[in-house]
Amino acid sequence: MRSRTSPPVPWRPDGVREAAGGLVALSLATFVAITTELVPVGLLPLISDDLAVSESLTGLLVSAYAFMVAALAVPLTHATRRLPRKGLLLGALAVYTASNVIVAVAPTFAVVAAARALGGASHAIFFSVAIGYASRLVRPHLTGRALALVTAGASAGFVLGVPLTTSLGTAVGWRASFMVLGGACALAGVLTAFLLPPVAGGGAPPDDAARGTRRSALATVSTTNALVYLGQYAVYTYVSVLLLATGLAVGALGPVLLVLGGLGLAGTAFAAARLDRRPRHTTIITLAVVAGGIIAVGVVFPSTVGVLAATAVWSAGFGAVASVFQTAAIRTHGASPDVTGALVNATANLGIGGGAALGALVLTGPGLATLPYFGAVIVAAALIVVVLARGAFPATPAAPPAADDARVPDDARSRAS
């Protein structure tokens, strides 16, 4: 028998199958997290009418949330680096629950905004830790598949979470949507507590001659990630406004978003099948489809059929984006998995918040018809960066530094040998 003072046994699962329970838990938690972040998108007109504020101001609920994440992801991840990873995730889910419940009962727009900021602070920790967590559950050569499986939870947030909360909101009121979502967050916390195995933090790559190159690659991936999300959310934050402007009925919003989200799952599956073999090619195809789909929305607007078809292409492409950039960032080995997750989280939400704000400016200035062109140009700029930055987006995955492969449970105790 190994004594209680023996060193903890490294936890090194052989593949995705062995880590399935943990990956399912992270996917479930990611589902409620992304739904919490994006639920105002489908309910934006209802919230605006009920609280007597403009649609552009209501759209800033997404911005305020995202900017909290962008500002707090790195410092909160650094401040909590010695705490158990699993405990942090469970705490974040508890705060998500509280945030949604407060929004559901908020008497004024100011209280809604404050509760959303609370959710943003939780989000800053959750996704930063979750990205690093998923990368530790499997061997390095399976990182792409593991992150794509976890990202499927985010895609499911588009497929089921946002459309269902939108449908519920249009049927019985937007406040009921937030209350139900609060309950879903609490349930996800219980399931995560049972399914997710503990892992350690840390795992920084060695301080060798290539450290500067790895950090530069991580900076390039993070910056490109911000550009993609900036272009995406300049348009997507107001997708319900766009769809209604084509003549789509309010009652059809939920079902349409459900179908569009389902196409996003196809993009996630595409990434899962290819990221561990052809990451660069996968990234280029993904961004080309997203940029092409968004610009097509502008070209065919205000045709209902045309906008729906173009949005379908755009949604399918965007389903792969999160796993593409999370995998690329982790594989730069420019920082520990947690810090890398924080950078991806921060830059994505900087793009989300900036995109929502940019979209609001375009709505009050040039107008709704020009909005897709702004978004498409920004995503196209990100695509150009990927094409030029071969070191940050290599054709095949690079081998990790030796010191970057340690995975030890953070509450590991001695085990019988």
From TrEMBL:
CDD domains: MFS_NepI_like (cd17324). Keywords: Cell membrane, Membrane, Transmembrane, Transmembrane helix. It is a multi-pass membrane protein. Residues 404-417 have a biased composition (Basic and acidic residues). Residues 22-393 form the Major facilitator superfamily (MFS) profile domain. The chain crosses the membrane at residues 21-44, 56-76, 88-107, 113-134, 146-164, 176-196, 217-236, 242-272, 284-301, 307-330, 342-364, 370-389. Gene3D superfamilies: MFS general substrate transporter like domains. One of its GO terms (molecular function) is transmembrane transporter activity. The keyword Lyase does not apply. Residues 396-417 are annotated as: Disordered. GO terms for cellular component: plasma membrane. InterPro entries: MFS, MFS_dom, MFS_Efflux_Transporters, MFS_trans_sf. It is found in: Cell membrane. This is MFS transporter. It comes from Antribacter soli. The lineage of its organism: Bacteria, Bacillati, Actinomycetota, Actinomycetes, Micrococcales.
